[in-house]
Amino acid sequence: MFIQLFLSKTHYVLFFSGTLWPEVAKKKKKKNKSKKRKEPPQQTDPPSIPVIDLFPLGEFPEGEIQQYKDDNLWRMTSEEKRELERLQKPICNSVRQAAEVHRQVGLHDAYTTGNNRYQMQFTYLESYITIPVRKLISENGLQAGIAFPTGCSLNWVAAHWTPNTGDKTVLQYDDVMKLDFGTHIDGYIVDCAFTVAFNPMFDPLLEASREATNTGIKEAGIDVRLCDVGAAIQEVMESYEVEINGKVYQVKSIRNLNGHSIGQYQIHAGKSVPIVKGGEQIKMEEGEFYAIETFGSTGSNFSICRMLAA
């Protein structure tokens, strides 16, 4: 029996753009004219201006800030802990620069792909991401650039598939595709993905992955056990159902796919963040970076190559 299996994958790093621009007055010898506000640079469509030019002060926007939970609330009031965070500011700023590049390219690609990009070859889709990333991040060898090959995983392929040169695969209306790309500054990697589906029939599947990811982000934190994050993700993911061609499927977490810790120049740094209950009791530690990743399936809760995924 051939079983159609749809998977969705979502993992986010949320960053928001915004900065303050000083007023600049033009000096005149004879007349005293009122000050004129210097207009901030505007990103093009498609994006092509390096983000360093959009933030000339070199300070990049903070992302979404999650409050510590329960017994960790004291970290918000401890001056010693806040000073430690200030000492890590250069690292955080590098991550925020990489994240701002990812955000601008990802938002543009999600909008254009989601509206009018089916019937497009995968090789073009892949370049549609990598070319703007190289421009916006001011690619410079090991100092700044693309963190890993862009994933364009289609339907039953859950993750980590990249089209080869000459691939003639064309994106169709009923396809479900995971776009997964990474950016880095000085080896500090931002690893994010989102799922694209043109047919609204798949919206509940995408929502399941999105809400499960947001739950994982909220549950994560210093001294939190990885198994607890996985249990929370699974509870949300498997509360969803999706109707595909008249048949109702429960969305399931794929138990052999995980999130992971990230190190400098190291996309997988040794710790795995499960998306099901019963994982390891290892704790998240101070100073670590994580990619919270979720994979939802309408079929088996185990990923194998011959299944259909999205």
TrEMBL record:
UniProt keyword list: Aminopeptidase, Hydrolase, Metal-binding, Protease
Catalytic activity entry: Release of N-terminal amino acids, preferentially methionine, from peptides and arylamides
Domain Peptidase M24 per the UniProt entry, residue ranges: 138-294
InterPro entries recorded: Creatinase/aminopeptidase-like (IPR036005), Met_Aminopeptidase_Type2 (IPR050247), Pept_M24 (IPR000994), Pept_M24_MAP (IPR001714), Pept_M24A_MAP2_BS (IPR018349)
GO molecular function: initiator methionyl aminopeptidase activity; metal ion binding; metalloexopeptidase activity
Cofactor: Fe(2+); Co(2+); Mn(2+)
Residue ranges with Basic residues bias: 27-38
Region (Disordered): 27-50
GO CC term, one of those recorded: cytoplasm
SUPFAM superfamilies: Creatinase/aminopeptidase
GO biological process: proteolysis
Protein name, as recorded: Peptidase M24 domain-containing protein
